[in-house]
Amino acid sequence: MLQALGNILGADLSRLLVGLIAVLAFSQLNALFLVWLERKVAGHIQLRPGPKEVGPFGLLQTIVDGIKLVGKELITPFKADKKLFILAPIMIFMPVLVGFLVLPFGENLIIRDMNIGVLLIFAFSTFSVLAILAGGWASNNKYALLGAVRSVAQNVAYEIPLLLSVLSVVLMVNSLKFSEIVAAQGRVWFFLVQPVAAIIYLICAAAETNRAPFDIPEAESELVAGFHTEYSGMRFGLFFLAEYTNMFIVCAVATSLFFGGWHGPFGFSLGLPGVVWFLLKTYFLLFVMMWVRWTFPRLRFDQLMNFSWKIMIPLSLANLVATAAILKFI
Amino acid sequence: MSYWKEIIDGGWSLVEGMRVTVRRLFKPVVTVQYPRKHLTLSPAYRGHIEFIRFPETGMHGCIACGTCQRRCPSSVIKVQGLKAHAKSAKFATHYLIDYTRCSLCGLCVECCPTQTLKYSTEYSLEGTSRWSGVIDLMQRLEDKKS
Amino acid sequence: MASLIQEPLDERIYSLNLGPQHPSTHGVLRVLLRLDGEFIVDADPIIGYGHRGHEKMAENRTYEQFMPNASRMDYLSGLIYNHGYTLAVEKLAGIEVPERARYIRVICSELNRISSHLLWFGAYIMDLGGFTPFLYAFDDRENILDILDRVTGSRLTYSYCRFGGVARDIDEEFITATRAFIKRLRSRWADYHNLVTKNVIFIHRVRNIGVISPELALRYGVTGPCLRACGFPFDMRKMEPYEIYDRFDFEIPTETACDAEARYLVRLREMEQSCRIIEQALDQLPTGQHRNDKVPFKVKPPKGDVYFSFESARGQVGFYLVSDGTSYPYRLRARVPSYGNLHVLVEVFKGTLVADAISILGSVDIVVPEVDR
What we know:
heterotrimer; A: 0% strand; globular
């Protein structure tokens, strides 16, 4: 019957539909798994077990938490800008789903292998800045506004070294298509060729997703909860899920650009299909991000900006120029 | 030059920090899953007071002198007693404490002339009203007879 | 007092309450900040949210009935306050204390000092955003709390000291547990230094932040580690040795930088010095009674007054007791270190950022119920 449906709709459209359903399912499952992983990693680093009771090893804890969040009252603060307030969590969650369309999960497992794949992801991830600003402004709360304003400045500042480091890889491969970038890493992964760009990318990825030492916008001990102070119930849940999904996307992009995508080490696949390698590498990078979050204190805001403008941008520019020079003369 | 040195030193200190946390990641947890496993209470644990049953008489030794009542800083204790006849010692008939105000200082246990009070090892007292914090020591002694 | 703030909309400077409910004001402290963007123009600490009337309660309770109150004033150094109050009354009433009891009191006070500093360390790093050292510090602190629990019966608000000694004697298990704890704590310093002290992010958050100049510190009556970080080696245990502190060989850690990093380093080194004191006390521990039996139940000191000051984890505490010959004190006045330490921040906050304000507040180690008593 599915065959008949496929024949009616045509190959392209049916592929798109299957992909969409897969994306929705995968993003939810992924968010569930990541929340569990974060809590477990945080727990064991802090000498405690993390969730244990609900389900085996606490795996169902996130579902139960989601049910709890859905059941909470959705409070809108007094004199808040209602339309923006309700729109902000939706605005932050929708664009991240677009990022899944171009990720190379395996050799033929890209939903839409666009010519501008890399650019698409970064273009859509900038929407989150707008959503944070909308959420912070619409809350009618000074703490939320401070958090949102800081987040805008931080995101803009860290976009630049992020894109410059990605540009170094794109220069080497001569294309923005994900499938070609991953195919070019058959023998040697790019982080061995461009270690500086890989490190800069990872640091800026953490800053873009408001994670790890760069979580000023949601600084829990300074500004109560930053830009999502006034959000309760599933609206807060949406911010939360959007953060984890965003994390997955930037780590998946890092895997594709620097760590070989769906290739095994040095081209040996060791019997595992490409999808498994891709997911293993992405989740390892996510584990590293969580490890970093639970180890370091937070930077002060102007130190964060200094770090970006005075260290990240010159280094990534120098890296780009060096890459271009080396490529010209080889 | 110090620009580069700062970056490298800073980066190395971050790596050292990460090494400390990852070592702890693989050590066993130090917490105890409370309702499933219990910790042992210390022998000096100060729960609310209760009577000691003296083996010679088979009863408590409270003579309702009221020293504990006067000594308690928060006026937690209420004790009453009766004399069997005019020349005998008093014997307590009622002894109530309001545990919700007790600060567990231990002055009552120390000042008792017959040393009839001791700390219990109760730590999980729940109730639905404030009255469940009122503990009747005579009743408790009765209950512990069995 | 500013309770309702209404500003015109075109005013550049706005007010923000670092409110009584905040994850990093330690207790119910309210600081009314007037901000220009993110820079603090003015800071006004508003205290009194935790006032419980301890000094009034002292007038209506006898001397030994006040003992639980003493440890609840500053709940993190509860044993040190108990100890100090007991010493004040013993000085007033002229009560003798056996030697063993003195040693036990010193050991327990120093253990309490270490536990207070460990909690400060964890809470400070948590304010700055690193959540794990908090739990590592608490893991070590649990050890101390278990040791003290075994001998006093409680973990936080000890009413352990009595006039003329202590309530219960310590046993061999206490001594072995304490020695094992000190050994374990000493192995932790390397971890703490690698994870926090050398961390470049932490250094950027605390170096040259919250500089309290020495003149400012003296003017506001700052005491404790804050004063020692400004270069003054002032510690009541060395200045006017009380109990038996003159029998131990320990140093006063001092730094000259006057900033938050200096206060942090001073406290870490104080923990090490406390370990030294405990070791020496355990080595010198005599046998004997743990309590002077001849002290009456109701202590009736002669008419007169006494001012006794001692060093708690936060600074110099002073008890001024006035007795009129009855068993109820006429007046008890407590001089608390957090009061001066808090109000010096009014000067220090000017011109800093909000994030720095959190860092400074954390480094000064204020316990608000102590300020409000």
